[in-house]
């Protein structure tokens, strides 16, 4: 154990201090990050651009410059590492997604979101896998086995709905926003869990029993990971409520929250679970209980710290993908047969569109059947937007593709190189071309809603003032809900069946207020200290 | 370049995902961090304890348990890496020190602080080096050369005044607090720069010319590093003022501030300067200009984020030092001659006390000569407290000792092992014994001042309410000063000589208000947007 770490430390030493080249690399990379943020800010008002595309294009430009400087040897500063990605970059993004999600909307539409996110991803994966098996035989690509085909399905089932979320307005179209947002997060988690299940599974002998084992394994991962995240979140809430750190120090509260979130992720890794799912649910629980137990300063700090981490991580990814797009090593294999690579990429794009259409419209139809009120139904225009929102492919696809088809970012096999370049092509094409078309498309489909273009990427609810949004949320979310006229009380079995989410939500609120909040704190149940800043907001909310 | 990083990535892969043991280590370490914070909080009210001692003792306990579990093989989870320390752990602490320092007090006492911090450290280093050369010959330690002796001087000249700062009250004894705080930071930077200068210098041929070269090198490092930090800070202020990010997003502002601070550190590494000094001055400039150009949310977030990072880093260090104290490998060599090690440690403790007394009392006397008003003079009791505050040795000494006497945390030479165990003994003894005596001692020496024991470690000015301290600071610090009755206008040469700091401070304020603030923002010069939250605090401050 020590030996491994020593060697890492030695290498890090070499990289970080002795190896002056890598200091140069880090400097350039950090400077590019700053440049992306500043330029993304300047282009904010533009009709077409968004932060992701900006970072991607800056990455490509930097890649070209590095390629010219190094005489065509390399286009990036670091080799893509899917571990760096899954351990340091993705967790803050997913945690923040859970932390900032509007829980009321999320849990109201819980069943729809799970349908789209989990079942939809499975459908999409299946269709892409089948399509690839069908069509790739006609192309002269090489030897890919059944595991590779299924992995390709999981790789291209992972969506990236950031572009669309930047354009949608949470207040004008709450249903649409929460569906796209929720589906995006559940989709990320599902495709990663699915990908891991496929990789770790022996696919040479498929029979009914092994298929059931696969499904069982998948469900086990899903539920234990969720449970771990919930427990970690509740533990942090309980500790902070019992000890009431804020009396002494904001820093302690912030430190405990960040460390517990990280601990939940590492514990998931320890038990071979899905850390992504764990931090997502840890984030949800922390924002529902823990966040309300801390002082006002801690609330502002944690909210913005998590959002900033997620924001920087997203820019990091797109910048990186942009720089990596020109990597000579992978394109070398493609030079001989450019047609094959273009055909494969086009085929994948087609399959992505078909695979997504194959579940968005049927599942929307099913969901609409269960809803009574026409305002709650998903209109055909909204269905098109949901479909469109999931066409972009991003960093998760890249990371999974690298994991499947390279060893530490390198490959020497032609078929693997083609898969990597196809993935890069699909990611670049879908992010840039579809991304640029998103704003105009949504303006066209939803002309009635006002579109705030200066909505920000990772934290759409960044408070302009400090106390106001806290109060606002408190009033809107916590109390208006309980037994209000909008919640239909279940009078019959039919009502229970047709409005299951509302009913589940209603009983959950009752349970939450009766048992959970008194123990774990949360809005209105935070420890009350006379004269403390929480006094105002807590009492104000009631 | 790539190759080195690839191998690191491979190792990290191994460590982070494949190597399950290190996942266990990380889990235990993060859990211990959480435990230290919680227990430190519970012991807050205690008369004797503080956070550092708590973390140190928890570390020792964990070390004992690990030692028993592994059957006496190892007592720590990671091998101490001075690079990990200097690159990831120390910079946030130093940056935060610069960011949170009360600039008015700091610059008012600038000359005194520089006397204590820079000249004092040199005096201390010289005395310890000479003493060690004198006394170590009598002990049977082994072959240490002149470079080792000078390095020992620098190692034990690095103080750790955290314990004392936790007990002192910034409002009751502002002069004392700012002297101890300021000296501590300048001392850290000086001893690290000194240590590097000693290590990189050819000490076999010492003559007048090389001595001057040494001093020139030291001064060059000091001033260019400072300049780089100031430039990076001003650049961040200028960018944020010009673009006014807050209009769109708090996250962008926070991200730019953090990234620019990190960039300043990495740039210093790039130009082979002292990153420690650079981030310290970058922190000062950022808190003076940049911090006032951002939104209220960003202010709260950055203030607490930097404080939390520093807080966690400090706990991390003490926890680590505690765990490392029992490392068998180093004590193995000492077993044969326990007397030698004890004698060496006792001798070092004596030299530390003598070396510190040798500059605190003479320099205080000199400073007092230049002050007219008796309230500004440093009383003999305060001198004793200043002397006491710098007796503790901490993480910087450990890191420097590891750097000088081990290779990646390991050593096979007897004399080196003895130096490492002596350092551990000095750090443990001074932190625990002197640390425990600090609270009672200060109560004895300063009985008139009320001592708030629940002062927190890294952020003594954590706002209890959000807007109040901002307003308060604005009134107290920015305007009351200018031309107020407390600033004596220099009427004669004598006045210029006897009140140099006040005069420098006065001219700096004039320059700052006339030239710097209009360009770089700062309190009262932040871009004004009607209806924005800055309106209240900025206008309120005027």
Automatic annotation (TrEMBL), chains A, B:
Gene Ontology BP terms: regulation of intracellular pH; regulation of stomatal closure; sodium ion import across plasma membrane
Residue ranges of the TM segments: 24-43, 55-72, 84-101, 113-137, 218-240, 261-286, 306-323, 344-365, 385-405, 417-437
All residue ranges annotated as the Cation/H+ exchanger transmembrane domain in the record: 35-442
Known catalytic reactions: Na(+)(in) + H(+)(out) = Na(+)(out) + H(+)(in); K(+)(in) + H(+)(out) = K(+)(out) + H(+)(in)
Main location: membrane
Record's keyword terms, sorted: Antiport, Ion transport, Membrane, Potassium, Potassium transport, Sodium, Sodium transport, Transmembrane, Transmembrane helix, Transport
The keyword Membrane is annotated on this UniProt entry: yes
Cell compartment(s), UniProt: Membrane
GO molecular function, one term: potassium:proton antiporter activity
Topology in membrane: Multi-pass membrane protein
InterPro entries for the chain: Cation/H_exchanger_CPA1, Cation/H_exchanger_TM, NaH_exchanger
A Gene Ontology term for the protein's cellular component: plasma membrane
Pfam families: Na_H_Exchanger (PF00999)
UniProt keyword Transmembrane present: yes
Family from the record: Belongs to the monovalent cation:proton antiporter 1 (CPA1) transporter (TC 2.A.36) family.
Protein name: Sodium/hydrogen exchanger
Organism: Citrus x changshan-huyou
Lineage, highest ranks first: Eukaryota, Viridiplantae, Streptophyta, Embryophyta, Tracheophyta
């Amino acid at each position: 154990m020590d030996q491994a770490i020593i060697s890492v430390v030695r290498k890090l030493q070499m990289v970080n201090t002795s190896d002056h080249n890598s200091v140069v690399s880090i400097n350039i990379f950090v400077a590019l990050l700053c440049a992306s943020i500043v330029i993304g800010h300047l282009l904010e008002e533009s009709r077409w651009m968004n932060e992701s595309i900006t970072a991607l294009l800056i990455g490509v430009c930097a890649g070209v410059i590095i390629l010219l400087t190094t005489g065509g040897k390399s286009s990036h500063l670091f080799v893509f590492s899917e571990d760096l990605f899954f351990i340091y970059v993705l967790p803050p993004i997913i945690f923040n997604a859970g932390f900032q999600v509007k829980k009321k909307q999320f849990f109201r539409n819980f069943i729809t979101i799970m349908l789209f996110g989990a079942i939809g991803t499975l459908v999409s994966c299946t269709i892409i896998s089948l399509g690839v098996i069908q069509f790739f035989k006609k192309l002269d690509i090489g030897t890919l086995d059944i595991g590779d085909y299924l992995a390709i399905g999981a790789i291209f089932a992972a969506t990236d709905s950031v572009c669309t979320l930047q354009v949608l307005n949470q207040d004008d179209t709450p249903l649409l926003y929460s569906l796209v947002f929720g589906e995006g997060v559940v989709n990320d988690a599902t495709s990663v869990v699915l990908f891991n299940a496929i990789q770790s599974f022996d696919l040479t002998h498929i029979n009914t029993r092994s298929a059931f084992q696969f499904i069982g394994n998948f469900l086990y991962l899903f539920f234990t990971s969720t449970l771990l995240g919930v427990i970690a979140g509740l533990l942090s809430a309980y500790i902070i409520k019992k000890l009431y750190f804020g009396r002494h120090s904001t820093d302690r509260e912030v430190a405990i929250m960040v460390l517990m979130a990280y601990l939940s992720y590492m514990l998931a890794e320890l038990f071979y679970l899905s850390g992504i799912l764990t931090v997502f649910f840890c984030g949800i629980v922390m924002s529902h209980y823990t966040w309300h137990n801390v002082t006002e300063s801690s609330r502002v700090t944690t909210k913005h710290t998590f959002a900033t981490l997620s924001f920087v991580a997203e820019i990091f990814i797109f910048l990186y993908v942009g720089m990596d797009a020109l990597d000579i090593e992978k394109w070398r294999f493609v030079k001989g047969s450019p047609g094959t690579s273009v055909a494969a990429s086009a085929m994948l794009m087609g399959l992505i569109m078909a695979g997504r259409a194959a579940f968005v419209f049927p599942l929307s139809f099913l969901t609409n059947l269960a809803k009574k009120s026409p305002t709650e139904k998903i209109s055909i225009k909204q269905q098109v937007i949901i479909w469109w929102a999931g066409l972009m492919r991003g960093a998760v696809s890249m990371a999974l593709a690298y994991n499947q088809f390279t060893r530490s970012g390198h490959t020497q096999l032609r078929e693997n190189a083609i898969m990597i370049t196809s993935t890069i092509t699909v990611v670049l094409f879908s992010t840039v071309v579809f991304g640029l078309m998103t704003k105009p498309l949504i303006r066209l489909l939803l002309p009635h809603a006002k579109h705030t273009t200066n909505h920000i990427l990772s934290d759409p609810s960044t408070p302009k003032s400090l106390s106001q949004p806290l109060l606002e949320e408190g009033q809107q979310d916590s109390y208006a809900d309980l037994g209000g006229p909008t919640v239909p009380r279940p009078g019959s079995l039919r009502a229970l069946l047709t409005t299951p989410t509302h009913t589940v939500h209603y009983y959950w609120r009752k349970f939450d207020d009766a048992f959970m909040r008194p123990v774990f704190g949360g809005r209105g149940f935070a420890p009350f200290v006379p004269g403390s800043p929480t006094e105002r907001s807590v009492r104000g909310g009631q």
